[in-house]
Write a structure and sequence with these properties.
single chain; alpha/beta; six-stranded parallel β-sheet; 19 helices; 11 strands; 13% strand
């Protein structure tokens, strides 16, 4: 099986990466290695774990202008002036990258990458980058087009080119199937290599929240405001600019942390608070469940119907039903460090046992194999076609 994974990274990460390491330059393979080694999002967790299972797999970071333009130059794929010879230091600039992306200059490059790779499975982590029309044009070059989603659902017409949609939202599976779209439940996870890269991390924060603040988290932001007024908590992530000048959060907000810095901040926390995006409804799904426990923090997360299927609540993680209960739990576990640390250790052990990407890719290979086999068995034979 050959799997080509298409991913996109946040512009905030690119900005931080360029600030720390300078202009993204070098060959395509060198640039991609540097980006993957920064470990934003899932990094190369999917491809590495798939390769360990005998699957040929690679990641494409398709919204990095310097990376994709390097591929085009090396493979003599013409995209026309003025982009063809754009210096890396310009291509690395956030504004230039945005202009190139919005002008869809990079779209023809990823389409050509797919055509030349001819994967069995085209696996899209971001459903917004390749248009439905372009996906339709790729059908002759790909056996199975798969999308992974945990955001508001696009229209059925937009999803029409997909052969399968995987989602960490349990409630999305039946909704997609009701539209006539094949869908399966597929959880996110944690990569233990993060712990190796971080090494020993001393604790610094009694309690933290590490995540974004945006319109997608309307209920969650009000919750965080209340915590900021009631307990000792530090905040990290994007979205500080969206807070009002009178926000309780502002004085304790330390700005953005990306990739390994984000994981390090979680590891520095005795307790870390999680809250889900509004579209999660009453289901636990997000990456913070696994990142926080994998970092060795005690996870305090919002109570959800399926949380007990992922962790043992009360022993491996702690769950709150409302703001008042969250405040009480933060105060209690801050005052009872032995109980707090026992939960953190149990949560870490559970994640390393059941929620690694090695385990997830075992499931993914089974899913993809099943759908590829079903597709092959339903296809007309060569003799019948003649």
């Amino acid at each position: 099986m050959k799997v080509l994974i298409v991913d996109t990274y946040y512009s905030g990460f690119f900005r931080d990466f360029s600030r720390r390491q300078g202009a993204i330059a070098g060959s395509f393979s060198e640039q991609r290695r540097r980006l993957l080694d920064a470990y934003f999002g899932t990094g190369d967790s999917y491809s590495r774990a798939l390769k360990a299972r005998g699957v040929e797999a690679e990641e494409l970071i398709v919204n990095s202008a310097p990376l994709q333009l390097a591929w085009a130059r090396e493979h003599r794929f013409s995209i026309g002036p003025p982009w063809r010879h754009l210096p890396p230091r310009w291509a690395s600039h956030e504004l230039v990258n945005k202009v190139i992306t919005r002008a869809r200059v990079l779209s023809p490059i990823v389409l050509e990458q797919v055509r030349r790779t001819r994967p069995d499975v085209l696996y899209l982590q971001d459903l917004s980058f390749i248009s439905p029309e372009d996906l339709g044009a790729l059908k002759p070059h790909v056996r199975l087009i798969v999308g992974q989603i945990a955001c508001p659902l696009p229209s059925s017409e937009y999803l029409k080119p997909y052969d399968l949609i995987l989602t960490s939202f349990p409630h999305y599976v039946s909704r997609l199937q009701a539209r006539g779209i094949a869908s399966e439940y597929f959880r996110l996870g944690f990569d233990p290599i993060v712990r190796e890269k971080l090494g020993v991390v001393p604790k610094r924060y009694a309690c933290s929240f590490v995540g974004g603040i945006s319109k997608a988290h309307t209920r969650g932001t009000a919750f965080l405001e209340h915590l900021a007024a009631e307990v000792d908590i530090d905040f990290f992530g994007y979205g500080k600019h969206a807070l009002s000048e009178t926000s309780n959060i502002r004085a304790r907000h330390h700005g953005e942390v990306w990739a390994l810095d984000m994981h390090r901040t979680l590891a520095e926390s005795y307790i870390t608070v999680n809250r889900h995006v509004d579209v999660a409804e009453n289901f636990a799904n997000n990456m913070r469940l696994y990142e926080a426990t994998g970092a060795g923090a005690m996870l305090l997360t919002d109570a959800k119907d399926n949380l007990g299927e992922i962790f043992e609540v009360g022993r491996e993680v702690v769950a709150y039903r409302d703001t008042k209960e969250a405040v009480e739990m933060i105060r209690f576990y801050s005052a009872h460090p032995e109980e707090r640390d026992a939960i953190a250790r149990a949560g870490l052990a559970r994640t390393l046992r059941d929620h690694t990407y090695e385990r997830r890719m075992e499931q993914l290979v089974e899913i993809l194999t099943r759908h590829l086999d079903a597709q092959s068995s339903s296809a007309p034979s060569t003799k019948a076609a003649r």
